[in-house]
Amino acid sequence: MLFYLSLAAVLFAVGLFGVLTRRNTIGILMSLELMFNAANINFVAFNKYVWADGLIGQMFAVFIVVVAAAEAVVGLAIVLLLYRNWQGIDTDHVSVMKW
Amino acid sequence: MTEFSFLIPLLPLFSFVMIIFFLRWKEMLSAVFSIVMILAAWVMSIIVLIETIARHGDNYEAFYKFVDLPNFVLEIGVLIDPLTAIMLVVVTTVGACVEIYSVGYMHNDPRFSRFFAYLSLFLFSMLGLVVANNFFMIFIFWELVGLTSYLLIGFWFEKKSAADACKKAFITTRMGDLGFLVGLFIIGIYFGTFNYLRVFDIAGSGMIPAGILTAAAIFVFCGAVGKSAQWPLHVWLPDAMEGPTPVSALIHAATMVAAGVYLVARSMPLFVTSGDASMVVAIIGLITSFIAASIGLVQNDIKRVLAYSTVSQLGYMIMALGLYGYDHFHGQHSPGFYAGTFHLYTHAFFKGLLFLGAGSVIHAVHTNDIQEMGGLGRKMKKTALTFMIASLSIAGIFPLSGFWSKDEIVAAASHHPVFFIGTLTIAFMTAFYMWRLCFLTFFGEPRDQHRYDHAHESPNNMTYPLIFLAVLSVCAGWVGVPYLSHGFASFVFHDEAYHPHPNYLLWAVSTIVGGGGIILAYLMYYKKSISADAMANRFKRIYKLLYNKWYFDEIYQKILIDPVMSIASFMWKFDANVIDGAVNGTGWLTIKWSDIKEWFDTWIVDGAVNGTGWIVRQGANILRFLQTGSMQFYALFIAALVVLFGIYRFETSMMEGDEPIFTIGFIIAVVLLAVAAKLLQGRPQTDRQAESEE
């Protein structure tokens, strides 16, 4: 189990790092997927080792995959609008609410 | 009719109200109305007098209690006794004559109606004073009389001298009234009542200490001194001659000034309880009479001579009353009371006549100065004749009314050598100055031809009152001749009736004295066998003293008015500097204090508010750098906090740690993050530029 959790933590950290550092919006979305998947791994791992009788963890992972797909759609739509407004998808553009 | 005697004062009041409110615009109507009212009052007075004679000395008293407290009662009511009845007739008779006379004298005056209104108000006050049954009520009317006197003296208030004179009269008599008021307080406190008869009962019962009785009598007499123009308050009466002559006749000869004598006569039961007070009264009367008569010798203003004569005669009466009180106190019989009241009664007629005659002369020649007259007897026969009758009467010539009354005063003084000599001297001077007036005015050659040419006899409505009063001047005294067994003396008396009997020696002495005065005046001013100027030069000092009225006005100016003025001006300066200074200082302090408060408000209160704002602003200035607008920064922030929180949970689960330190560390971390964000602010831009360049 430690292996799974470590993998998930590493994967989450990588995703988080990507979200925080990428300037490309597409990259951020991809990093988000990594974080979702890290969470999925946790769910599956806990399901297997903590509560093996049930399938709740498995079910949650499947739901997250579905919701992530929907989220990616929304995210890409936002990216599209960003591009339309600023002719680019850099996050630097999206700082109009600066002080 | 006596039951309706309260109406007698109300009739003139009614006329006053009617004239002031309704009839003022109809001059003749207001005059006629007031004359009708006073004639009605006159008729009623005569009926009341007849009824009083018929009652044989029983008093009639009726009153209404308008303040009724358990141990103090103020009444308003009438007391009709012989003295009151006589005074009612005197006042209404002279009042009626004067009102009729005024129709002629005041014609063409712009305030004709108002003059009659004032006369009516005066008669109301005077009659109210006469019928009053207690000291409190008499004081009210006393002051009303003072007020109307003020109004009438100042009737021609456009003249500065008249305006000054009415102020002088009012203020001077007020001095006396102050004393009267103190007397009232004494009576109110020690006697517990103001009703005459009860006060006199208590005074006679011996329950009151002698000192209190003396004080009460003297203070009451103070009122009489002011009102009857006795020394030392006599100075107002000659100045009061600035008023219209009918006013002088009515108020300053026959009635108002008689109020003081009336008050003393009315309060006689109080005076007889104190020999000292009575002696004071007698001495004041003698001094007044002598001073006034001596001043009258040399004055040139016809009305002023008469004014001094009035003062002198009032002093005579006061002296007689005082002597009566003194003699009675010492258990001796004296004709003083009878003499004083009798002279009051006869004097009202002949002095009223003298003033009206003088008014008639002034009306004809338009001057008061007898040196500019002369020879007027040829043009104004009725006036001259009546004037001379009155002069004979006042000089005490048999058998005119003045003879009988003056003789009784001489008789009253005959037991006291000083007073006896004084009385005879005054009688001599009176005869002299009155006939000096007659000779200078009506006889000899006119000294001012222009004025003489314009002189004319006055109209009938002025001469008829003169003739009527002349008849009274002759006959009025006959009710008191010693041959009558039920004459004046047995009608008006105090304690027990005095029955006069003819004293031929005294008659001879007083006739010689009076006749001597007339003869001297004849020699000096008609025959001119004794030069008046030579006499004046020979006794220059005395002449100047008399001519300047013993310098009383100047002395009062120096010792009373000037100090009062300087005190007043000191008070004014005190007021202007200290009181105003205090007020202004308070204002100044308030301004300064509000300056301080303003400063406090601006710098401390506003400072606190602004400071709070400033702190918030400065804090916000730091914290706003957290708002980078960059989503990734926010996400980093959240992540950092999550990490920190994780560390915190980890630490607290390891050991129950110091939360505040952590919290402070947390806040510091947030601030550091904000500063870092500020410092890093420029970077993305340059990075992006760099990227775009790439």
Q: Give a count of the beta strands of chain B, DSSP E runs of length 2 or more.
A: 2
CATH topological fold name of chain A: Helix Hairpins
The fraction of residues in strands of chain B falls at under 5%
Largest sheet of chain A: none
| H/E topology pattern of chain A | HHH
Largest sheet, strands/sense/barrel of chain B: 2 strands, antiparallel
Kindly state the percentage of residues in helix of chain B. Answer: over 70%
Structural class of chain B: mainly alpha
Beta-strand percentage range of chain A: under 5%
End-to-end separation of chain B in angstroms reads 140 Å
Discrete helix count of chain A: 3
Give the SSE string of chain B: HHEEHHHHHHHHHHHHHHHHHHHHHHHHHH
Multimeric status of the protein? heterodimer
| Molecular shape of chain B | elongated
| Average residue pLDDT of chain B | 83
Radius of gyration of chain B: 44 Å
Question: How many helical stretches of chain B?
Answer: 28
Report strand order across the widest sheet of chain B. 1-2
Structure description:
The complex is a heterodimer of chains A (99) and B (694). Chain A is an all-alpha fold and 99 residues long. Helix content of chain A is 77%, strand content 0%. The longest helix of chain A has 31 residues, at 56-86. In chain B, a hairpin with a 2-residue loop joins strand 1 and strand 2. In chain B, helix 1 (7-23) packs antiparallel against helix 4 (112-131) and helix 3 packs antiparallel against helix 20. Chain B is elongated. The model of chain B is unreliable at 684-694 (pLDDT under 50). Classes of the chains: A mainly alpha (99), B mainly alpha (694).
